[in-house]
Amino acid sequence: MSSDSAVQTEHLTKQFKQRIAVDAVSLEVHRGEIFGFLGPNGAGKTTTIAMLLGLIRPTRGRAIVLGHDIQQEPGAALRRVGAMIEAPAFYPYLSGWNNLRVLTRAAGLPDTRIDAVLEIVELQARAHDRFRTYSQGMKQRLAIAATLLAEPELIILDEPTNGLDPAGTVELRSLIRTLAEQGQTIFLCSHQLHEVEQVCRRVAILKQGRVLAQGSVAELLQQRRRVQVRVVASAPRALELLRTVPWIGAVEQQGDLLLVDVAGSRAPEVNALLTRHDIPVAEIRTRTESLEQFFLEITGEQGC
Ligand code: ATP
User: How many CB atoms sit inside 10 A of residue 73's CB?
Assistant: First the structure.
């Protein structure tokens, strides 16, 4: 495997009796990037993460984490991995600092790590307040602090902004960016597509256990750019004409707006063609989809 991969899976598959939860998933997460792992409910995200963490055994295929096969060398693979996969259990009556001390003692880590991680998640000012007095955002940040104690190279976060208000979400997003800037790799599983689009460089979209798309957000959206043409009073004629052109894909009509499946760079040709046929073009531009629109189109979901 290439040395710049933090995670690589090859045809990773998990079958529970008759149900194939994860179906030949091949992922590649580069070191130092924020990778978004997306999919509707039941797509197989949690099952994939459980295999990456060695919690369940794949039926077929393999997962290599930080250069080590998770089945053959689980200890070496997981030593440098931090994961937040469900709402963490902290003692409500202990302070954030003391909760982390429970963890450092259990893991044989020095207490100096506690202050270091509380500083990263910006909780120093509230370090000695009881956990139960924390806001939801502070609780999530303490959970991330806990994953950072052992100085992981790879951090797996499953829905980290669940239950956060907009301000808490913004803070967490900025924390995720800070971690990546420090060289950590982030594997971010999220339903918040807007958030993923803002922080992730690359994504994989999963549905019914299969990867439907994988790549850089910019490239995936670039492929989906469509030309949007507004024609006045000639939409049916324009539609008929454009549908006969071999280099144009599907054409969809929305009132006097036509959405044309063709690379944005060919907008001038579309314009020339319509003008040549005496169809006045009121407006023509390329339209870039959001990650959310892209996701909904390829998964056929109403939302996830
Ligand atoms: P969500 O976003 O809802 O958490 P997910 O993408 O994490 O969904 P998984 O929890 O991985 O999806 O589930 C994938 C499929 O595998 C689902 O159909 C689920 O019912 C099934 N599944 C998961 N765990 C088991 C299990 N232990 N036994 C049987 N089926 C399971």
Answer: 15
Q: For 5-220, CATH number? A: 3.40.50.300
In testing the pocket of ligand 1, which one of 46, 157, 158, 189 has its CB within 8 Å of the most ligand atoms?
46
pLDDT in tens, 193-247: 888 888 999 999 999 999 999 999 888 887 777 788 888 777 888 999 999 999 8
Q: Which two tokens stand for residue 185?
A: 């790799």
114 lines ligand 1 (CB under 6 A): no
Confidence at residue 3, expressed as pLDDT on a 0 to 100 scale: 61
Question: Which CATH number among 3.30.870.10, 3.30.930.10, 2.60.120.260, 3.30.70.980 corresponds to the domain 225-287?
Answer: 3.30.70.980
Quick one: pLDDT at residue 302? 57
The verdict on the CB of residue 137 being under 6 Å from ligand 1 is no
How many angstroms separate the alpha carbon of residue 62 from the centre of ligand 1?
Answer: 19
The residue whose CA is least distant from atom 11 of ligand 1 is 44
Residues 6+ apart with CB under 8 A from 167: 137
- Residue ranges of domains in the chain: 5-220, 225-287
Cβ–Cβ under 8 Å, residues 143 and 84: yes
Residue with CA nearest ligand 1 atom 2 = 41
pLDDT number for residue 87: 67
Give, using CA atoms, the residue closest to atom 31 of ligand 1.
16
Low-confidence ranges of the chain (pLDDT < 50): 1, 303-304
Measured from the Cα of 209, ligand 1's closest atom is 14
Nearest to residue 4, comparing CAs of 64, 54, 61, 45?
Answer: 64
Would you state the pLDDT for residue 304?
41
